[in-house]
Each structure stands twice: as structure tokens, then as C-alpha cells.
TrEMBL record, chain A:
<dbReference type="InterPro" id="IPR008995">
    <property type="entry name" value="Mo/tungstate-bd_C_term_dom"/>
</dbReference>
<dbReference type="Pfam" id="PF00005">
    <property type="entry name" value="ABC_tran"/>
</dbReference>
<dbReference type="InterPro" id="IPR017871">
    <property type="entry name" value="ABC_transporter-like_CS"/>
</dbReference>
<dbReference type="InterPro" id="IPR003593">
    <property type="entry name" value="AAA+_ATPase"/>
</dbReference>
<dbReference type="GO" id="GO:0005524">
    <property type="term" value="F:ATP binding"/>
</dbReference>
<keyword id="KW-0813">Transport</keyword>
<dbReference type="InterPro" id="IPR012340">
    <property type="entry name" value="NA-bd_OB-fold"/>
</dbReference>
<dbReference type="Pfam" id="PF17912">
    <property type="entry name" value="OB_MalK"/>
</dbReference>
<dbReference type="InterPro" id="IPR040582">
    <property type="entry name" value="OB_MalK-like"/>
</dbReference>
<feature type="domain" description="ABC transporter">
    <location>
        <begin position="4"/>
        <end position="234"/>
    </location>
</feature>
<keyword id="KW-0067">ATP-binding</keyword>
<dbReference type="InterPro" id="IPR027417">
    <property type="entry name" value="P-loop_NTPase"/>
</dbReference>
<dbReference type="InterPro" id="IPR003439">
    <property type="entry name" value="ABC_transporter-like_ATP-bd"/>
</dbReference>
<dbReference type="InterPro" id="IPR015855">
    <property type="entry name" value="ABC_transpr_MalK-like"/>
</dbReference>
<dbReference type="InterPro" id="IPR047641">
    <property type="entry name" value="ABC_transpr_MalK/UgpC-like"/>
</dbReference>
<protein>
    <submittedName>
        <fullName>ABC transporter ATP-binding protein</fullName>
    </submittedName>
</protein>
<keyword id="KW-0547">Nucleotide-binding</keyword>
């Protein structure tokens, strides 16, 4: 069943249109991540769903009910903000119960809900404290609790972990995932952090310029990006892009040629015919290149020179010079390479991506 | 690991030349009497004296009897301290028609200042809150008009307001003056509150909306409790401004409702009899005591609030 549905949404501020003809369906119990760099409209979209921004045109449905004109409180949503947005003058307990008191809920029910949220988030000992006496991680827990006590079907997260340090961020990330697994609520989560997106999401919607570029599960987004923007946005370091064109190789099979070097395309699952002479971009992820290992299916081997080595503990990142390109390649952290040495590369075309040079769309 | 670090350190010290060890170590010494400190403290002292001298003269003069004042040495401390001038200024100095001192003016001023301050702050804070958080249509135009109002000289508006008050039957009354003070405080107070509320995190406002609080709920339960400094600033501005007002007081009220400032003027400028400098000084200090007290009590919050309002916009 569809939980949240956005139909033909348009949002303009005066002459400026921020979102246009945006459609999005989110299934019940789904964890959807809106991913994009700042200014792409992801937070704006979330605010529209929450009802904090009045939309210009279109409709929003939550649980099959048209909530387009409803106040935020009547939409059945709970929201968690980046800056926690805890009421500074109230204790944690009052922060949690504020919305319920506004709704004139009986005291017994309020206490029950607050106690339950405190237990789930393990903030029981903090209930009597003020937000200023809490650490960043604790504050964000309380903020999640405030959404939790509302007992809603849809949770909205607006970059909830961006203000935390790296260690806390990964801890809370796991907790949010655990929360989702136990509550099974619909969650819409805005972030610019691709790790958060890949780890948490059932589906990711990558946005750019107010338009959803691709809406798919993390695996598809990672392995079969629909265009060069998505391909370049996901993955760190970014996918290597080699500009070249299609030519005919041995046996009349299409090959990719760049700077006089040809790459066999055997194993690449193209959606259309690869006509010779077509200008294309070959995208290869750093982790999909083998260094000094037995060649893959095509048996093709390329030579490259190590330029810079970046040991990262678990991985060892190499920057190689190959056919006029600089290429990033990820190898195991235990392997060491000194700059200047020549290595042999082999590419796995089943995991590569091919884009049209003009439209930047996947072929 | 720590052992190795220790070894390394001692080895390093051994190589250091003897002259380094004898050289500077620890906090840098500061000279007590440098040109810089003399200039800084000298300037501050002169400025302070410049401001405090008139106050000193007023206090000593108010404590002297008239014969002593006639000796002419205004800086000399009183030979014989008397509080007679203070009592007279408060309860029996003559102001035109009646001779019951400043006390009448004091209570008039209280009755003008307290309601004017409360009403103007209440309205202006709601204005500022609506303007910064509820971006209604035409909010910018409304705000611009309000600010332009702040730049029109008071004198231009005196006569029209007299007519308006007369038409609604409030001319010469205390409530008429309260209304005038409330209106004239509105532009600057609204600006003050708007800027302060705009500086509060927007997400708090959003969170309260998701929690279901409405216009008044958010104002009273979220915004007001977070805004004590700016309320104190507004209170100080209004109390001192209205207490010190002379022009409106003299124009819009009848003699029996004259505020303290107008009565002070009448005492000091009275042309009958001898000039009682000691009574005049005492009356002046009494009139200035209220704003002075307000500053002393809430000065720290005042500075904090002014800074907050100034930076965030």
C-alpha cells in the first residue's frame, strides 16, 4: 500500500520555480532516502510533505488521505531536524510531551507514550534534564523521541546526523536503522551523505536541480546508475570517466576506444545497439579494476603507471596514469605500490557503465 | 611507547645550547607603567571625570543649605549636610498652581509609564513575531511602512494627534498620553523584536508547528520563554524613553496630569522668589532616579540583548 504519494508537485517562490512536476510514491514501511547536494530541493520537498511549506500546485497524499491543505499536525507525521530543534526552556520530558499536551491528550496516555519512547531510545535517565545539559547524540535521540511519541505512520528526517561528529553519526545511523526495523514505519530521510543513503535506504531518490534523477534501491543506484550525475555522485572516490567512442574490434564486436587504447566491451549489458563512431563515456568504479591479477573474461590487460599511493587502512587507493587519463583504483590495504612502477590492470565490464557523451544517459 | 617518548625528550634537551636554557621561559613580563597603559588609563579617567563631575556637583549642592550655596564654591563638599531640599522637592515645592512638590508628577509618570510600557511591548512583540515567523502576504510592505513611520519627526505629528485625541475625547487625559506613547514606541520595538525572533532557529518554529502548536501557542510557549533578554531591552528602552519624555507630556495632558519631567521644569524655571538651587538639584536627581535605577538593575541584560538584536537580522 502506498504510504506517501506526491503528485505533480510544483513549488514556486515568485518567479523562481524550485520543484516542478515532481512525482513520488513511497510504500508503507519503506525507508526512502532523498539524496543530493545542498540546494537540490531535497529538504524543500520534505518540508512540502510535512506541510511546513505551502505548495503552488499538485497534491500530497498520506495514507490515502489528501493532506494537501492540512496543517502539519494533522498530517500524521513526525519530524526530526538537523539542529535538533529542542525547546531550550523545557526539560526533555516536557519536550517529548509538548505536542501531546497541545493535542489535549489525557495525562495517563502522555506518560505512557513518553515512557515508551524513553525506553526505546534509552533516554530514561535524561528526562528531567534541559537540552543544554545533553550531548549532541543525546539531543538527537530526544528529537527522535519527540517524533516517536506522536505515534505517527510517517517519520520525516531532515539531515538528522549532519551536526554530529563522525563516530556518533555512525552509531546513530545504526540506531535509526534498528528503529526502522522494529517500528516498520514509513521513513523519509533527507541527507547529502551517500554512506547514510546507501546503508539506510530501501530506495534512494537522487535529486539535482529539483528533479529526481534516479529512484531505485541502493544496489541498482550503485551498480547501474541511470546517468553520469548519479554515477559521479555515488561512490568515493568517484567513478572514473573515460571519454572515447565505440569502434568495431576483433570478430566485429563493439569495443570502446580512448586515446588509441581499446577496451573490450564483452560482458557489458547494453540497453541499445552500440553503433561504431558513437561518442560515449566509459565509467569504471575504482573498486572494479583489478591490479596485477589474472585477467577477467575478456583476457584483456592494460598497462598503467602508479602516480600516487594513498593508504587508507582497510584500502589502498592508487592514482594511476593510464592512456592520458588519471584513474583511481582501490586495492586491498595490505598491498603496497611505489610510485613510478608499472602495473597491469584488468577491467570487469559486467560492472562498468557506458554513457552517451551528449545526453549523459546510460546506454 | 611512553618510555620511548621520554627518552627522546631527554636526548633532545641534552643537545640544547646552555644559552637557550637561560633565555625566556613562561609568561611574558608586563611593565606596569608603559606609555600605553598611561594613555589608556589617562583617557578613561578624563572621560569618567567629565561625566561624573556634574553628578557630583548636583549631589553636593542638593545637600547644602542656601547660605552655604551663596558662598559660591560649587565643588566644595557640604559643611553641614541637610536633607531639607530633598523633602521640599518631593512634597512642597511650588509648580505653577499647586505646591505639593514632585510627588504628584511622580505618580503621574508611573501611571503613564507602566501601562505604556506593557501595552507597547505586548503589541510590538506580537508584531515582530508575526513579521519574522508567519510570512503573510504584504508583510514586507507593512514592515516598511512601520519603519518609515519611525523617521518622521515627532513635531510634524503633534497637531494631527491633538486633533485625533480631541475627536475621540481623550485629549488631556492620561489614557490619551498612554495611547500616544504606545504608538510612538511601535516602530523601533517592532524592529527590535522582529530581528530578535528572526535570529532564533527557524527549525524550532517548524518543530512547534509539527507538534501542533498554533500562532498563540508558539508565541507564548516557545518564543516568549526564549526571549527574556530582548524583553528586558525593550522594557528599558520604553521605561527610560517614556519617563524622560517632556514634549508629549506637556502637549497632550492637563496640568494636574503633568508627568514628573514637566513638573521638574516648572519647579526649576519658576520665576517667583529666590532660586533654590539645592531644591532644584534634588528635584532633578529624584526625576532621574527611576531610569538610573532601571539601568543599574538590568544593565547586563541590556547589553546582551542589544548585541543580539544588532548582529542578527
Amino acid at each position: 500500500m502506498t504510504s506517501v504519494s506526491v503528485k505533480d508537485l510544483r513549488l514556486s517562490f515568485g518567479q523562481v520555480t524550485v520543484l516542478d512536476q515532481l512525482n513520488l510514491d513511497i510504500q508503507e514501511g519503506e525507508f526512502l532516502v532523498l539524496l543530493g547536494s545542498s540546494g537540490c530541493g531535497k529538504s524543500t520537498l520534505l518540508n512540502c510533505i510535512a506541510g511546513l511549506l505551502d505548495i503552488t500546485d499538485g497534491q500530497i497524499f498520506i495514507n490515502g488521505r489528501n493532506v494537501t491543505w492540512d496543517e502539519p499536525k494533522d498530517r500524521g507525521i513526525g519530524m526530526v531536524f538537523q539542529s535538533y530543534a529542542l525547546y531550550p526552556q523545557m526539560t526533555v520530558e516536557k519536550n517529548l510531551s509538548f505536542g501531546l499536551k497541545v493535542a489535549k491528550m489525557p495525562k495517563g496516555e502522555i506518560d505512557k507514550r513518553v515512557a515508551r519512547a524513553a525506553e526505546i531510545l534509552q533516554i530514561g535517565p535524561l528526562l528531567k534534564r534541559k537540552p543544554s545539559e545533553l550531548s549532541g547524540g543525546q539531543r538527537q535521540r530526544v528529537a527522535i523521541g519527540r517524533a516517536l511519541v506522536r505515534d505517527v505512520d510517517v517519520f520525516l528526517f531532515d539531515e538528522p546526523l549532519s551536526n554530529l561528529d563522525a563516530k556518533l553519526r555512525s552509531e546513530l545511523r545504526v540506531e535509526i536503522k534498528r528503529l526502522h526495523q522494529s517500528l516498520k514505519n514509513t521513513m523519509i530521510y533527507v541527507t547529502h551523505d551517500q554512506i547514510e543513503a546507501l546503508t539506510l535506504a530501501d530506495r534512494i531518490a537522487i535529486m539535482k536541480g529539483g528533479v529526481i534523477q534516479q529512484l531505485a534501491d541502493p544496489n541498482t543506484i550503485y551498480n547501474a546508475p541511470r546517468n553520469m550525475f548519479v554515477a559521479g555522485f555515488i561512490g568515493s572516490p568517484s567513478m572514473n570517466f573515460l571519454k572515447g567512442e565505440i569502434a568495431l574490434g576483433a570478430g566485429g564486436r563493439p569495443v570502446f576506444v580512448t586515446e588509441g587504447v581499446s577496451f573490450s566491451l564483452d560482458g557489458y549489458n547494453a540497453g541499445e545497439v552500440l553503433a561504431p563512431g558513437r561518442k560515449v563515456v566509459l565509467g569504471v568504479r575504482p573498486e572494479h579494476v583489478k591490479v596485477d591479477e589474472p585477467a577477467g573474461a575478456s583476457g584483456e590487460v592494460h598497462k598503467a603507471v602508479v602516480d600516487i599511493e594513498e593508504p587508507m587502512g582497510a584500502d589502498n587507493l592508487l592514482w594511476l596514469k593510464h592512456a592520458g587519463h588519471t584513474m583511481a583504483v582501490r586495492t586491498a590495504g595490505s598491498r603496497r605500490f611505489s610510485p613510478g612502477t608499472t602495473v597491469r590492470l584488468s577491467f570487469d565490464m559486467t560492472l562498468a557503465s557506458l554513457f552517451d557523451a551528449e545526453t549523459e544517459e546510460r546506454i | 611507547m611512553s618510555d620511548r617518548g621520554h627518552l627522546k625528550k631527554t636526548a633532545h634537551l641534552a643537545e640544547v645550547p646552555a644559552s637557550w636554557e637561560a633565555g625566556p621561559r613562561g609568561a611574558r613580563p608586563r611593565r606596569l607603567l608603559s606609555t600605553r597603559t598611561i594613555v589608556v588609563y589617562g583617557t578613561l579617567f578624563v572621560a569618567a571625570a567629565y561625566y561624573l563631575l556634574p553628578l557630583y556637583v548636583m549631589i553636593v549642592t542638593s545637600l547644602k543649605g542656601m547660605p552655604e550655596i551663596r558662598l559660591g564654591n560649587i565643588f566644595a563638599p557640604p559643611l553641614e549636610i541637610t536633607f531639607e531640599p530633598w523633602v521640599k522637592a518631593w512634597s512642597s515645592a511650588c509648580t505653577g498652581l499647586n505646591c505639593d512638590g514632585l510627588s504628584r508628577g511622580f505618580w503621574n509618570s508611573v501611571m503613564i509609564t507602566v501601562p505604556s510600557t506593557i501595552i507597547s511591548i505586548a503589541i510590538a512583540s506580537i508584531n515582530g513575531y508575526a513579521l519574522s515567523n508567519w510570512r503573510f502576504k504584504g508583510a514586507d510592505i507593512f514592515f516598511t511602512i512601520l519603519i518609515v513611520g519611525a523617521f518622521i519627526p515627532y513635531q510634524v505629528m503633534l497637531y494631527p494627534i491633538v486633533i485625533v485625541l480631541r475627536e475621540i475625547g481623550l485629549y488631556g487625559s492620561l489614557s490619551g498620553l498612554v495611547i500616544v506613547h504606545t504608538i510612538f514606541g511601535m516602530p523601533i520595538l517592532t524592529l527590535l523584536f522582529r530581528n530578535y525572533f528572526a535570529g532564533l532557529p527557524e527549525e524550532l518554529f517548524k518543530a512547534a508547528r509539527v507538534d501542533g502548536a498554533g500562532f498563540w501557542g508558539i508565541y507564548f510557549k516557545i518564543m516568549v520563554p526564549m526571549s527574556l533578554p530582548i524583553f528586558v531591552v525593550a522594557m528599558i528602552l520604553q521605561v527610560t524613553g517614556i519617563w524622560n519624555d517632556f514634549l508629549f507630556g506637556v502637549v497632550f495632558t492637563r496640568p494636574e496630569y503633568y508627568p514628573m519631567t514637566v513638573q521638574l521644569n516648572n519647579i526649576v524655571n519658576s520665576v517667583q522668589g529666590v532660586k533654590e538651587y539645592n531644591v532644584n538639584m534634588a528635584a532633578t536627581i529624584l526625576t532621574g532616579a527611576v531610569p538610573l535605577l532601571v539601568y543599574f538593575v538590568s544593565g547586563r541584560l541590556f547589553v546582551r540583548g542589544i548585541a543580539a538584536g544588532a548582529v542578527k537580522g
